Amino acid sequence: MALNVEIAPHILEFRFQAKTSRGSLKNHKTWYLKIWDDIDPGSVGYGECAPFEGLSVDDRPDFEDKLEIEVIKIRRCNIPTSVEEVNTLVEKIDIQMPSVRFGFETALRDLFYKGRRKIFDSPFYDERDPITINGLVWMGDKLLMLERLENKIARGFDCIKLKIGAINWQDELGIIQKIREKEGGENLCIRVDANGAFKEPQVYEILDALHQLNVHSIEQPIKAGQVEDMKGLCRKAPVPVALDEELIGVKSIEDKRRLLETIRPQFIVLKPTLLGGFMATEEWINLAEELDIGWWITSALESNIGLNAICQFTSTFKNPLPQGLGTGGLYKNNIPSPLTIDEGKIFYATDKTWQLELIEG
């Protein structure tokens, strides 16, 4: 019994131009992994390697060539008969290829659970328990952002996350003020994500304004890599700070601990595709809880293949905070799946099935 592996590249097309402070996105390229046992080809595991352009450690011109090299390490290996054996196979993958580790970890776990799109023993999959998520409002002009915001509130989201830092700050502030002025707006949880857009001298004025509007937290207010500045910010900021990009590329458990102990953020935001998969993400979670740092998990523009795995992983922790798992509706050509969003929650619907024609070709 030996493993077979195939790669299926796919370009995901956004329904709209997804704007961030780092630029605009029209599409997102992903590579699907299909893994099966040559003796039992009916059981197939699927994974997704989706490096984030301009952000992932493995966003590189030779990604496909490197992916082929990593596939060779797994192809013809023995079929894993335990989660521990799955983990051993995943550790064969180059640590400099975090999205590939994530893809193989997902596909091998799926195969271990007999190709049922089950990745973890979790309430999300086994009991169909929903996960509370934030509604993500992408950047745009002021009117467009307000329209998107209204849509999220109408759809039952109690927690809204706004991307900020790409348009005039006063316009962005005005949007948040309008939220608070609406009926029920005073009870809405508001998060903002700056993607490192602000300069250190300017950021305190911005944080003071956000504090006046009772904003829950700000993700990555300044660029990653400014450890001392971020440390000072987390000490003084009137709004809780969440690290995001700051975590990318930090690999060893010692370096992870050193970073968190130095900066002492109020929260960390975890993206398994960018961090190297679920084992690497769990290291961050364990350290955060040890240091009394809050956390939540966010998808990183994966299709429903990757999002399904992240939802199941997230569900194993029963974290009460809203998670960032609402990206499945971004694409025109996502993989149809049981993943469903309703009333600010994501769940695995019993009346829907996976349609894998895009992967199968």
Largest sheet: 7 strands, parallel
Element string (H = helix, E = strand):
EEEHHHHEEHEHEHEHEHEHHEHEEH
Count of DSSP strands: 13
Strand content: 15-25%
Structure annotation, total helices = 13
Give the C-alpha Rg.
20 Å
| SS-derived structural category | alpha/beta
Strand order of the largest sheet: 5-6-7-8-9-10-11
Explain this structure.
The structure is a single chain. This protein starts with a strand and ends with a helix. It contains 13 helices and 13 strands. α2 packs antiparallel against α3, α5 packs parallel to α6 and α9 runs parallel beside α11. It is globular, with a radius of gyration of 20 Å. The chain is α/β, with parallel strands linked by helices.
Concise description?
With 361 residues, the chain is of the alpha/beta class. The protein contains 13 helices and 13 strands.
How does the SSE layout of this entry go?
Layout: E1 3-20, E2 23-37, E3 40-49, H1 63-74, H2 83-90, H3 98-112, H4 123-126, E4 131-132, E5 135-137, H5 142-154, E6 159-163, H6 169-181, E7 189-193, H7 200-212, E8 217-219, H8 227-236, E9 241-243, H9 253-263, E10 267-270, H10 272-275, H11 278-290, E11 294-297, H12 304-315, E12 339-342, E13 345-348, H13 357-360
Parallel strand pairs: 5-6, 6-7, 7-8, 8-9, 9-10, 10-11
Antiparallel strand pairs: 1-2, 2-3, 4-13, 12-13
Helix pairs in contact: 2-3, 5-6, 9-11
